[in-house]
Amino acid sequence: MLGVPKPSPVLLPPQPYSLPSQQYQQPPIGPAQLSSSLAALSLQAQAPEALRVVNLLQERNLLPPGPIPAPTPCLPQDLQKLNCNPEVFRCTLTSIPQTQSLLNKARLPLGLLLHPFKDLSQLPVVTSSSIVRCRSCRTYINPFVSFLDQRRWKCNLCYRVNDVPEEFMYNPVSRSYGEPHKRPEVQNATIEFIAPSEYMLRPPQPAVYLFVLDVSHNAVETGYIDVVCQSLLENLNSLPGDSRTKIGFITFDSMIHFYNLQEGLSQPQMLIVSDTEDIFLPTPDSLLVNLSECKELVQDLLKSLPQMFAKTMETQSALGPALQAAFKLMSPTGGRVSIFQTQLPTLGIGALGSREDPNQRSSAKDVQHLSPATDFYKKLALDCSGQQVAVDLFLLSAQYCDLATLGCISRYSAGSVFFYPSYHNQHTPAQTERFQKDLKRYLTRKIGFEAVMRIRCTKGLSIHTFHGNFFVRSTDLLSLPNINPDAGFAVQMSIEENLLDMQVVSFQAALLYTSSKGERRIRVHTLCLPVVNSISDIFAGADVQAITGLLASMAVDRSVTASLTDARDAMTNAVIDSLTSYRTSVLAIQQPGLLAPACLRLLPLYILGLLKQKAFRTGTSTRLDDRVFAMCQLKCQPLAYLMYLVHPSLYRLDTLINEGPQNIDDHIISQPRVLQLSVEKLIREGVFLMDTGSEFYFWVGRNCNPVFLRQVLGVQSYADVPLNMFRMLHFNHLPELDTAESGRTRAFIGWLREQRPFYSVLHVIGEESPLKSIFMQNMIEDRTESALSYYEFLLHVQQQVSK
């Protein structure tokens, strides 16, 4: 098990550090010295807009014109400018209540949302023979500690006074001595350390990649094998790693096929194990090979694999035994297993039967079978986690595959799940395109191996529930055999001891991992927030998007452990409870209507969006695997991407010329307003773009201006829009026409695409398009046969609040 042992005694640094001591300058005020000056910074003085009273039943246009920024904590300027980027680390409440009873009174959820391994354009990296940490609670030194004098610092989590090591007196950035408070560790809330040997329980593992492919008749029919092999051939040199990188392949149908790729062979050698009851490795030493030494054999295999099984009539799928084989092969080193599966496993251990009744897909009653049918996949995932192996699952299927069960292999091993329903190379070009783009990102993105993450918080606060893909190894230690830059996590917190004498509290997430180049590294994020004692200050600091993200994760758990109905009720009650508390405890004068503070004005809309989302909707036909995948995404997506799922963005495109253009990275990008998700915003004379994160819907109105169609789509009129644009379900990219309108439209869509790591497919749809129904389902403010309109939902909430 990877631990974080205490640093060994540090040798005094060599000459350049031991300069004569200079006169110590008292650094700027730190959190521990904050006095009543912070209390005087009452949030109401700072944030009157956050507490502005909004009558939700009267004010219709609540959406801001563009992206919603995270609220800024009410801290002194010098502290706030050092605070952690909210895209990496944010809290549902940017003002922490002094007591649990005050939190209970506000009836708002308290929790953290993290994106700990996010791709960052700037990341300070420190190499040091000793990493300075609190001797008592092991917190890493950070911008929110306080220096009592030149030789002592006080921990901001447990308040222990620690000595400043001699080496820390020297600042490698300014090359000066005697100003420890100016070191990069104390100037950056996010920092990465290259760890010394005491942070390793074994030599850092190499990057090891094992690909496990379903080659049954069903799999071959979809054509996915060609795409995987082609993508691997194109990206083989871009796999993260070094000269030690290893790679291997297993294929399976009713039998397990291994591939001997040992250096010196003239071609890859297939080894077949037909006894799936008792899996063994035929040649353990030549199945995972050094990529740089055996690259030609690997390329030969990838070129020949698609043809090897082209004529197969094997329909069985021994996924469980294939996974057992992968576990045996990877256990000695750890690494990443990528599974590609196209049907229900039918043979050997882990075989499953269909649990979905298609007649119940539209049921308004409770949805069954959201929990796993067997614990085989969870147990195997925990075994994998213990050996530093993560399993990523790519599910490509038109049939029910029981993702609720299969997904456990990734969930508990810190893997990822990718889902391509109804995948077929020819018949669903949009899915194929997304699969190709996702694979390229997946194969080339940064990866961390044998990782653990610990979240610490100031004494008095405690963490009690984690959300995401991992195994909780001890109360606060997450085991992450792999960590990737697209993984998000959430945690719930409570206040165990009153924070009465504290002005601020801090949270620190430390991620210890092995880079693909074999370096042991520690990425540390520290967040500082003020403590308040008035309920209005708590509300003023509420972060509506973070609250929505945390409630979504909690609701997914509730759906599985209790029922979907319970989860839906809990989300609705969260809105009712918070607005009731606001009405009774914050508003001085009672007024008619449904009242909310401006900072929470979008909470009912976001919760309604969740209730209508695939994960939680009822009464609308929803395949069980689609529902479970939506739940996986809500639990594992970082908040920025999760919000696309909750509330897609709608823009009008045929009026971009009037929409305040901005200069972004030397490109002029129009910035159209975000519109309400209601049919009343659509007009037949217009062209609209809906951004749901993974998809763009380019909606063309029947009476759209022919000039726009000519300049952007290259057609004369609506009637001339090629049928394949509407019927083929996707239209890769807008044509690159030499017109200002085409340039503007493509620049705007390109700018949206650049803001996410995954690929968004573009669908051009008209009023006759088969995709129109999906487009309309995202109009969450409108009424459907089975769900309330936004206005009706507000009336329901008001009725409960007024009781």
UniProtKB/TrEMBL annotation:
Q: Which segments constitute the Zinc finger Sec23/Sec24-type domain?
A: 131-167
One GO term describing the cellular component: cytosol
Q: Which family does it belong to?
A: Belongs to the SEC23/SEC24 family. SEC24 subfamily.
Major place of localization? Answer: cytoplasm
Q: The Gelsolin-like domain covers which part of the protein?
A: 671-749
Membrane-protein topology: Peripheral membrane protein
What is the protein named?
SEC24 homolog A, COPII coat complex component
Top-rank taxon, per record: Eukaryota
The annotated regions of Low complexity compositional bias extend over 18-28
Q: Which InterPro entries match?
A: ADF-H/Gelsolin-like_dom_sf, Beta-sandwich_Sec23_24, Gelsolin-like_dom, Gelsolin-like_dom_sf, Sec23/24_helical_dom, Sec23/24_helical_dom_sf, Sec23/24_trunk_dom, SEC23_SEC24_subfamily
Q: Which gene encodes it?
A: SEC24A
- Which BP terms does GO give this entry? COPII-coated vesicle cargo loading; intracellular protein transport
